[in-house]
Write a structure and sequence with these properties.
The complex is a heterodimer of chains A (208) and B (220). By secondary structure, chain A is mostly helical. Helices cover 50% and strands 12% of the residues of chain A. Chain A folds into two domains: 45 residues, no CATH class; 159 residues, Alpha-Beta Complex (Nitrile Hydratase, Chain A). Chain B has two domains: 91 residues, Orthogonal Bundle (Cyclin A, domain 1); 96 residues, SH3 type barrels (Roll), CATH 2.30.30.50. Helix content of chain B is 31%, strand content 17%. The radius of gyration of chain B is 20 Å and the shape is globular. Classes of the chains: A mainly alpha (208), B alpha+beta (220).
Chain lengths: 208, 220
């Protein structure tokens, strides 16, 4: 075991050393509490993620009153399901329809609705997506394998303030009788960013 | 500021790199960089706006060649130095050489769940009526501040329409610089693609931004 440790140690990169030194210094000074650091990581690794958002979307698909509430006051409607707090303090839900598609970006940094989607993927925070989403959303969507009819209106939401956007994807046809828990399985992270669509119900049925 | 962070509309960055089943963190150090950044933010020594500004003031070449958590790490180091919590000598030696400063609070493990669930709402009570209403045509200002702003370059000097009145929110342009929250009205503004990008724009595109009142004038 000590062998493994030494082995890893000898291969630490500059940034690994830099972060390790920084954490040591902050701990030594009493500015950070190591158990709190572990708890922060644990929270986003196990508790907060796109499953939260999928529950919100599935509820909106299944319950017209909830959908209406979500579109009118997303912060309250989402809090009702227990999802609140950091990077989800001010929520707005935008709905895809037969003639309108919504897509979310943060061109200035990496604003993302953590409370319902967890931490953003690397591509969301990177220059290729941030630079192009506002100017050429169809080109971006093509890279995600999504092609929309030419006359579909595309609304791109650039998260320039503390308002966070959740896309409600279109409900797949043939799911009228599906219970909410099964509907949630169709809701992907990308479909709630607007770079993807909800899963094909047949693809889920086969694995279930 | 017109830094490397202001990416909207820039070209030449190539394809989007997608990763199936992507983990939250790609290395142990990323977890630690994430956690120390959040924990130091929770001490209340600086605002979220100030930390964004610390990242965007990295040299553009450094910003664009750094990974996300590298940017966070470098931004955190700048904030620690600027707030005299860590000295340059301490960064160099890796050892604490001066007594610690007293912080407003230090986040404890048992407080994490509560702190995250509460978040940090930025809406504030209104002091004066909103200048604009839904449907108003507005013109974003032509401006190039060297300080923090949330009006991207691509949306300056452009005409759009107010579609939402969000309420009164903390103003990042002042809050990032220790000049207080100066809460002001925040609006959802919609722009036609062609009014931002010109005649070659996708005719079915609209771009929606959340913009504070000081960025806007009524369009003539």
């Amino acid at each position: 075991m000590s062998h493994d440790h030494d082995h890893n140690h000898s291969e630490l990169s500059d940034i690994e050393l830099r972060v390790r030194a920084l954490e040591t210094l902050l701990t030594e000074k009493g500015y950070v509490d190591p158990p709190a650091l572990d708890e922060l990581i644990e929270t986003y690794e196990t508790k907060v993620g796109p499953k939260n958002g999928a529950r919100v979307v599935a509820r909106a698909w299944a319950d017209p009153d909830y959908r209406e509430w979500l579109l009118k006051d997303a912060t309250a409607a989402i809090a009702e399901l227990g999802f609140t707090g950091r990077q989800g303090e001010h929520m707005v839900a935008v709905e895809n329809t037969h003639d309108t598609h919504n897509m979310v970006v943060c061109t200035l940094c990496s604003c993302y609705p953590w409370s319902v989607l967890g931490l953003p993927p690397v591509w969301y925070k990177s220059a290729p997506y941030r630079s192009r989403a506002v100017r050429d959303p169809r080109g971006v969507l093509a890279e995600f394998g999504v092609t929309l009819p030419e006359d579909t209106k595309i609304r791109v939401w650039d998260s320039t303030a503390e308002v966070r956007y959740l896309v409600i994807p279109r409900r797949p046809v043939g799911t009228d009788s599906w219970p909410e828990e099964d509907l949630a399985e169709l809701v992907t992270r990308d479909s709630m960013i607007g770079t993807g669509l909800a899963r094909d119900p047949n693809s889920v049925g086969e694995t279930a | 500021m017109n830094g490397a962070q202001d990416l909207g509309g820039q070209m030449g960055f190539g394809p989007i790199e997608l990763e199936d089943n992507e983990p939250n963190f790609h290395a142990g150090w990323e977890e630690r960089a994430f956690a120390i950044t959040l924990a130091m933010g929770a001490t209340g020594t600086w605002t979220l706006d100030a930390s964004r500004h610390a990242r965007e003031t990295l040299h553009p070449a450094d910003y664009l060649s750094s990974s996300y958590y590298e940017i966070w790490t470098k931004g955190l180091e700048k904030l620690l130095l600027a707030n005299d919590l860590v000295t340059a000598e301490e960064f160099k030696s890796g050892q604490s050489l001066t007594p610690p400063k007293t912080l407003k609070r230090v986040l404890k493990a048992e407080e994490v769940a509560g702190a995250l669930a509460k978040g940090a709402p930025v809406d504030r009570p209104q002091q004066q009526p909103a200048r604009f209403k839904v449907g108003d045509r507005v013109h974003t200002k032509r401006m190039n501040p060297e300080t923090h702003t949330r009006l991207p370059r691509y949306a300056r000097d452009a005409v759009g329409t107010i579609e939402t009145v969000h309420g009164v929110h903390v103003f990042p342009d002042s809050n990032a610089h220790g000049k207080g929250e100066q809460p002001t009205w925040l609006y959802g503004v919609v722009f036609k693609g062609a009014d931002i990008w010109g005649p070659d724009s996708d005719p079915a595109l609209t771009v929606h931004l959340d913009l504070w009142e000081p960025y806007l004038d009524l369009a003539r």
